[in-house]
């Protein structure tokens, strides 16, 4: 194989040069491939869809983790649903005093990313504050007695195994699992091409939480402009934190991101009109 072609949308695709296919298999859940590319480094694709690359994953993982943690201001317990590549776990555990439970349905994703893409997880799975649970995230939030300050849904798009993680039932179960003032964040695709996903998620999140909104981040691999991350909480003040407050928390955290900053955090919630128009 010299090229990996990803069919993004009807009549639209992107391709990656392939230096070497490092691993490929189809298991009972999905097709997994990890390959070396000349521009993006190592790349993970599930069912033919690129999930993460070594080169640009920091945009997504930093914004998924640091926005809710710093907006909340007192996180001690985080739940990650999905995220088997370890990138979101890596960023969560940069915050001292935070413990993370990660629920991933496919152990093979964790093992393969640890073996072939170790820079993405950055050793997070070896951190004693990390608790890896191999289970169905939908079932976990429906049954667990634990409560969390933030829940980060680092899932695939709403197709295949990830489809159930975009339902109103799932969001209501997440609401039950949050402590008072908790925050749910999930990935919601690229609204320029996937506007229906944002509209549907906004309606379903709004049925489960008092405050439902989105914030944005660029991720070069996810072609089509800004990507949206869903935001839901019963405390509306959390998404209106000032840059000054966030700056104080950011400096106290001691983290050194490559993309996130308090100013970017504030601006990310100011949605462009074409995205705001989808919130109906």
CATH domain class of the largest domain: Alpha Beta
| Topology order in helix (H) and strand (E) letters | EEEEEEHEHEHHEHEHEHEEHHH
The largest sheet is: 7 strands, mixed
Kindly report how far apart the N and C termini lie. Answer: 44 Å
Percentage of β-strand residues: 25-35%
| Class by SSE composition | alpha/beta
Would you tell me the overall average pLDDT?
94
Number of strands: 13
Explain this structure:
The protein is built from ten helices and 13 strands. The protein has 280 residues and is of the alpha/beta class. The protein has two domains: 3-53, Roll (Spermidine Synthase, Chain: A, domain 2); 57-276, Vaccinia Virus protein VP39 (Rossmann fold), CATH 3.40.50.150. The chain has a seven-stranded mixed sheet, with helices on both faces. Strand 1 (3-9) and strand 2 form a beta hairpin. Helix 6 packs across helix 7 (195-208).
């Amino acid at each position: 194989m010299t090229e990996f072609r990803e069919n993004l949308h009807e009549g639209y695709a992107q391709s990656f040069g392939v230096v070497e296919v490092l691993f490929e298999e189809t298991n009972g859940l999905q097709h997994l491939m990890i390959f070396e590319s000349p521009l993006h480094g190592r790349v993970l694709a599930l069912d033919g869809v690129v999930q993460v690359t070594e080169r640009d994953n920091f945009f997504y993982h930093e914004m998924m983790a640091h926005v809710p943690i710093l907006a909340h201001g007192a996180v001690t317990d985080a739940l990650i649903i999905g995220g088997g590549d370890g990138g979101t776990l890596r960023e969560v555990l940069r915050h001292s005093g935070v413990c993370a439970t990660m629920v991933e349905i496919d152990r093979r994703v964790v093992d393969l990313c640890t073996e072939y893409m170790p820079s993405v997880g950055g050793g997070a799975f070896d951190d004693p504050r990390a608790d890896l649970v191999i289970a169905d995230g939908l079932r976990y939030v429906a049954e667990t007695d634990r409560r969390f300050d933030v829940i980060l849904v680092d899932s695939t798009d709403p197709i295949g195994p990830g489809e159930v993680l975009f339902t109103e039932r799932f969001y209501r179960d997440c609401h039950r699992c949050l402590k008072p003032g908790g925050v749910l964040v999930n990935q919601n695709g690229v609204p320029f091409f996937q506007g229906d996903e944002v509209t549907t998620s906004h309606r379903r999140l709004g049925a489960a939480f008092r405050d439902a909104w989105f914030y944005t981040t660029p991720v070069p691999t996810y072609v089509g402009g800004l990507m949206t991350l869903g935001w839901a909480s019963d405390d509306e003040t959390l998404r209106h934190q000032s840059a000054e407050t966030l700056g104080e928390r950011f400096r106290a955290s001691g983290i050194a991101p490559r993309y996130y900053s308090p100013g970017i955090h504030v601006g990310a919630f100011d949605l462009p009109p074409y995205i705001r128009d989808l919130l109906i």
